[in-house]
Write the C-alpha cells for this entry.
Amino acid sequence: MQPEILFSLFSTVAMVGWLILIILPRRWSWLNQIPALWIPLGLSLGYSLLIGLYFFQAEGGFDTLANVQLLFTNPMATLAGWVHYLAFDLFVGGWIAKKSDELHISRLIQAPILLATFMFGPLGYLLFMLLKGSNTLGLKQAKKSLEVTP
C-alpha cells in the first residue's frame, strides 16, 4: 500500500477515537474502551508491522539528531513515527479522560486538555497533571476545613 493511503487510514482511525473520547458520553464502559484500548492497540499493531517491514531498510537511527533526520527521510519510517504518535497520544488521552472522570472534572474542562493532548501530546499531559495536582490540593484543603476538632 502507498504511504499516503496508510497515513490517511491510520489518521482517520485515530480521529474516530478522539471524537469518541471528547464528544460521546462515557457512561457506556464498552464505548470508553474503543479510544482508550482498542484503537491504540490497533495502531500499535500497525506501527509494529511498519517497523518490522521497513525500519531496517531506512538509513539513519536514534543515536544523533542528524541520524534521526536521516531516518525520517524514508516515507515508511516517517509513517511509522506518525503512527507511534497517534497510538501513544490517544492512549494517554484515554488515561486522562478516565482519571478526569474519577476526579469529577467537568467535561468542559477536559475537552481543551484532550485537544491539547491530541495536538501536542506532552503539553496536554502536563496540563492535566497540573490540573490534577491543583484539584487534589483543593480537595485536601476542603476536607481539612470541614473537619471538626473537639
Summary: The two ends are 73 Å apart (CA to CA).
